[in-house]
Design brief:
The complex is a heterodimer of chains A (about 725) and B (about 230).
Chain A (H helix, E strand, L loop, with lengths): L2 H11 E6 L2 E9 L2 E4 L13 E5 L6 E11 L4 E6 L20 E11 L5 E17 L2 E5 L1 H4 L13 E4 L2 E11 L7 E10 L1 H15 L6 E2 L12 E7 L11 H26 L14 E7 H4 L3 H13 L2 E5 L5 H13 L4 E5 L20 E3 L2 H4 L7 H18 L19 H4 L7 E5 L4 H38 L15 E3 L10 H11 L2 E5 L5 H13 L5 E5 L7 H10 L2 E3 L8 H16 L5 H9 L11 H12 L4 H4 L11 H25 L2 H5 L2 H21 L2 H19 L6
Parallel strand pairs in A: 13-15, 14-15, 14-16, 16-17, 17-18, 19-20, 19-21, 21-22, 22-23
Antiparallel strand pairs in A: 1-2, 1-4, 2-3, 3-6, 4-5, 5-6, 7-8, 7-10, 8-9, 9-12, 10-11, 11-12
Chain B lengths: L6 H23 L3 H18 L11 H23 L3 H15 L10 H13 L8 H15 L7 H14 L2 H14 L2 H18 L4 H20 L1
Classes of the chains: A alpha/beta (about 725), B mainly alpha (about 230).
């Protein structure tokens, strides 16, 4: 984050406080919540409102705040107000900053005007972290404070201290100069760390929305480190929950409390297939870690988005609150759909009940929704929100364990299974196709698309391609005489396509996600922040190192504040249909920049983060080959079939040849698995791994029967002989180390 | 019998049972019935320690049902191998033990292997005739009909069991239709297995109940046609 961005963030969230205790500073830390130092508001009376000023200068907004909670030991207070404000809360980070890291703060001293009134005078401060744990406080150093000529820091108490764009603490006290105690000595000042504030906020959330207090912060990497627990990520829109909704994280906790045994069994079935340790019977964390991710926090800085991507990649289960189709939630859902194959659930609150819902965005219409509305509770036993969630977790993990192509979101397969020939997975240059992810509404189509982007962009790109080729010819002509610059450039046929125009008979979703990954030039229009576009934006940024060219109609309604924060970093081209300022050259320039960045090894940030954090054991490549062959065999013809008497083969009743062929195919896969184990591992390796030994012995019995029936005597003898060797190795006592 | 074990144990037990059944089938195919019996007895000992109570009113948990199904299946296989080994009394005992699970109202298993074998083994051993077993066969038909109306609709063994009971009671048309269904749902091995059962019964009833033996001969004739059509 640049210094300018940090200062902007601080200013818009800063708060000037004046009351019986004098003046002080604070900051917006959640919608309608302000944090400050307790000593700034110590005399505030319970239930009484005091005026504070949010923001700076012309954007300053008076609010009537009241004290709602405090921590005397940490000197932190939490204030609440009811006014609607257009400001982005600072993201609170509990983890201590590194020694030497740069910090930025913004606080208020006061000037006295001609009328003798104190008016706020906001000032930035900055410096480095001197000691991240100075007796439980942060010790900060600042040259400007240390110069000795600075103003007394009266009024700075409660000022937010940011590191990497996140709130790590608040100024509380100075080390006073011996001559003037209000002036800081040695340039040093103390801040109280943000973890106390985070606890106050968690308790407040629990009171106001019923959220489970045990929910951890997804942006804190330590939240994801319990190997002995199931991590369920709950992705929520900003602000208080929609009326009629229950807290999703609490529903997850309830699902666990009521169905822990079944969920554990299903998760362990899945983990066993990946050779991961099972969830233990009892653990300190209870076996479940609910990790909360609010989109306003996730999108508030690049660092937070990166941390959010880590959580999206690493959590075995995720639950997205789709109530109102918050653009941030949809964007993160798009990233999740690329990053991890299940288990991902989606739920809607408000007035939604399962089976009586709103129409989903077209690209998500196949989602199997849950509900966390209070109305859903009234539908009774078996249909309560926590029961829907537990049922989906159990079936999700069971199916994920047994079905190689399990999907609960679109995109995962489509962006990976592209075909075996290079042509199928080569990048698609802009001179061939450009994909525009944009709304499909009538107004947008008739103006933004038909009059401008759809009509003119292809011609602009053709001209750009023509100029580029001419330039290249000139360059070649100067270096060697093989090409004549006079020769006219090739005509290119550039297709600028929206989803509706993609030319293929294949299923729309499949071809769309494939194109989203492959096209070099993808334009994302954030105008209206349509849910389907936000989802596709997440998919695009997660799958292509070039990122996208972001655009937005500056004449349209502003996106919600947290999306604006994201857009600050994406820096969209702000075009204006009304005045015809389409800024095509700027769009093309951004695209060329992205290619140059790629050449300079600077890849898209979401793409890089997904690639870095992707959970390897959850990828299909991590499945051992023998397991894959066995699973494939079992899907064709189950090993339970002889006992159960039922064949999984469709049409087995009416096509015997098909049934027999399927049986042979399954048997040959088992033979292949046996041979692989036979030649891949030494007998002692097989015998020394309980899972592999069990697998080998089962395969041996199955292959022997098949070989006997098919009269493959050589195979039969080989299986018998090698199994005897393995069994002998298994029966030997382990040698002492 | 104790209540169900913690989930991790149940999963491990079920995997062990699956392995034991595969090994027992392999040994059976090799003609090593005694070894197959030993393998099954070993795993049954482990399963028994965790087996659910077939009686009582409390609804069975999914784990209890999985364990009970495995117990019933292993006991059925044990009975089959004991019969092949000539230990008919022990085989009958195994089928009866399996029937405790299979017939339990609490456990709600969808299987009829132990039930039908517990009825027909006395026919093979000469301990009973078809007349004495008529009521038991009628009860079995009623039970299996309920099963094939539900989740065993596509289960070849259910239709084969139903056909066998009908055949022994003299319902040739019903038996023929049910054998046809079983052979359509199964493969050539299904027909081979049905034929082997009928040949044993035919041999046992030849002198004692010529009419029943004649009906079985007719069924073998249809089945040879069904096998040829495969």
């Amino acid at each position: 984050m640049t210094e300018d961005n940090t200062l902007s963030l601080l200013k818009q969230a800063s708060v000037f406080i004046r009351g019986p205790d004098g003046i002080g500073s604070g900051c917006l830390v959640a919608p309608q919540r302000i944090a400050t130092a307790l000593h700034v508001v110590r005399s505030w009376q319970q239930g009484r409102h005091y005026e504070v000023q949010l923001g700076v200068h012309g954007e300053r907004r008076p609010c009537q705040a009241r004290l709602i909670d405090s921590d005397a030991q940490a000197d932190v207070a939490l204030l609440a107000f009811d006014e609607a404000v257009n400001a982005t809360p600072l993201v609170v980070r509990a983890a201590a900053p590194d020694r030497g890291a740069r910090w930025d703060a913004y606080g208020y001293s006061a000037l006295t005007n001609a009328a003798g009134q104190e008016v706020p005078d906001g000032q930035p401060l900055s410096g480095t972290i001197d000691d991240p744990d100075a007796g439980g406080r942060l010790l900060l150093y600042s040259d400007s404070i240390g110069a000795g000529s600075g103003s007394p820091l009266r009024g700075f108490s409660g000022s937010p201290v940011l590191v990497d764009g996140q709130l790590v603490g608040q100024l509380t006290r100075i080390i006073g100069d011996s001559d003037d105690a209000s002036r800081p000595a040695y340039g040093k000042v103390y801040a109280t760390p943000a973890r106390a504030l985070q606890a106050l906020l968690a308790a407040d959330r629990a009171k106001t929305s019923g959220a489970a207090t045990g929910t951890r912060d997804a942006l804190d990497p330590s939240s994801l480190r319990d190997a002995d627990a199931l991590h369920v990520l709950v992705v929520m829109p900003p602000g208080a929950s929609v009326a009629g909704s229950l807290a999703l994280d609490e529903q997850v906790q309830q699902a666990w409390e009521h169905q822990r045994r079944d969920i554990t069994a299903a998760v362990n079935g899945y983990r066993r297939g990946l050779r991961l340790p099972p969830l233990p019977e009892s653990t300190a964390n209870g076996g479940l870690v609910v990790v909360g991710l609010r989109t306003d926090q996730a999108l508030s800085s690049k660092a937070n988005l990166r941390a959010a991507v880590r959580a999206l990649c690493r959590c075995e289960a995720a639950l997205f609150d789709l109530t109102g189709y918050d653009p941030g939630v949809m964007f993160l859902l798009g990233i999740r759909s690329v990053a991890r194959r299940g288990v991902t659930l989606a739920s809607i609150g408000g007035t939604f009940t399962v089976g009586n819902g709103p129409e989903l965005p077209f690209n998500l219409q196949l989602l199997n929704l849950a509900s966390h509305s209070k109305l859903q509770v009234k539908l009774g036993e078996g249909l309560r929100p926590h029961q829907l969630i537990s049922g989906k977790l159990v079936s999700g993990f069971s199916e994920l364990a047994s079905l190689p192509h399990y999907l609960d979101l679109p995109a995962y397969e489509s962006v990976r299974q592209l075909g075996g020939e290079a042509k199928a997975y080569q990048p698609i240059p802009y001179t061939s196709k450009v994909l525009v992810l944009c709304p499909f509404g009538k107004t947008y189509t008739e103006t933004n698309w038909e009059l401008f982007i759809g009509l003119q962009l292809a011609d602009k790109l053709k001209e750009h391609a023509r100029q580029a080729e001419l330039k290249e010819r000139e360059r070649l002509a100067q270096s060697r005489d093989s090409v004549s610059p006079a020769q006219p450039p090739r005509e290119v046929d550039i297709r600028v396509e929206r989803l509706l125009e993609v030319r293929t008979p294949r299923l729309v979703a499949q071809s769309l996600y494939e194109a989203i990954r492959l096209v070099d030039l993808c334009i994302i229009d954030w105008t209206e922040c349509r849910p389907n576009v936000m989802f596709e934006a997440g998919v695009r940024l997660a799958t292509n190192a070039l990122g996208a060219v972001h655009i937005i109609d500056a004449g349209a309604a502003e996106p919600p504040p947290h999306v604006q924060t994201l857009l600050q970093s994406l820096n969209p081209v702000r075009y204006r249909c009304a005045s015809g300022k389409m800024l095509y050259d700027e769009m093309i320039s951004r695209f060329e920049t992205s290619k140059a960045d790629f050449g300079a090894l600077r890849y898209g940030e979401v793409f890089s983060a997904v690639g870095e954090f992707i959970d390897l054991p959850a990828q299909s490549v991590a499945l051992p080959l023998a397991d894959e062959l066995i699973r494939s065999a079992n899907l064709l013809s189950s090993e339970d079939e002889e006992s159960a008497g039922i064949a999984p083969v469709l049409f087995s009743e009416v096509n015997k040849q098909l049934t027999e062929a399927v049986g042979h195919a399954a048997a040959e896969r088992r033979l292949a698995a046996w041979l692989f184990i036979r030649y891949r591992y030494k007998p002692a390796d097989i015998a020394g791994d309980a899972t592999r030994l069990e697998q080998f012995q089962l395969l041996s019995a199955q292959v022997r029967r098949w070989a006997r029936k098919g009269d493959f005597s050589e195979v039969l003898e080989q299986v018998k002989a090698f199994e005897a060797v393995v069994n002998s190795a298994a029966s030997k006592p382990e040698a002492p180390p | 019998m104790s209540s169900a074990q913690p989930i991790a144990d149940v999963d491990a037990l079920l995997r062990r049972a699956k392995l034991a059944k595969a090994q027992a089938k392999d040994l059976r195919d090799e003609g090593e019935f005694t070894e197959a019996v030993a393998v099954l007895n070993r795993v049954l000992e482990q399963l028994s320690a965790a087996a659910p109570d077939p009686k009582g009113d409390a609804p069975a948990t999914p784990d209890e049902q999985r364990l009970a199904m495995e117990m019933a299946d292993c006991l059925g296989m044990l009975g089959g191998n004991l019969r092949r080994a000539g230990a008919l009394a022990d085989a009958q005992d195994a089928f009866m033990r399996g029937l405790q699970f299979e017939g339990s109202a609490r456990l709600q298993l969808s299987s009829s292997y132990n039930l039908v074998n517990a009825i027909t083994l006395p026919l093979e051993s000469g301990a009973a005739g078809t007349g004495e077993l008529a009521d038991a066969l009628r009860d079995a038909i009623a039970a299996i009909e309920r099963q094939v109306a539900g989740e065993r609709r596509r289960d070849r063994w259910a239709w084969a069991d139903l056909a066998e009971c009908r055949l022994l009671l003299g319902d040739l048309d019903g038996a023929r239709m049910n054998y046809e269904q079983a052979s359509r749902l199964g493969d050539s091995e299904t027909v081979d297995s049905i034929v082997a059962v009928l040949r044993r019964l035919q041999a046992a009833l030849q002198g004692r109940d010529p009419q029943a033996a004649e009906r079985i001969a007719a069924a073998l004739s249809w089945l040879s046609g069904a096998a040829g059509a495969v």
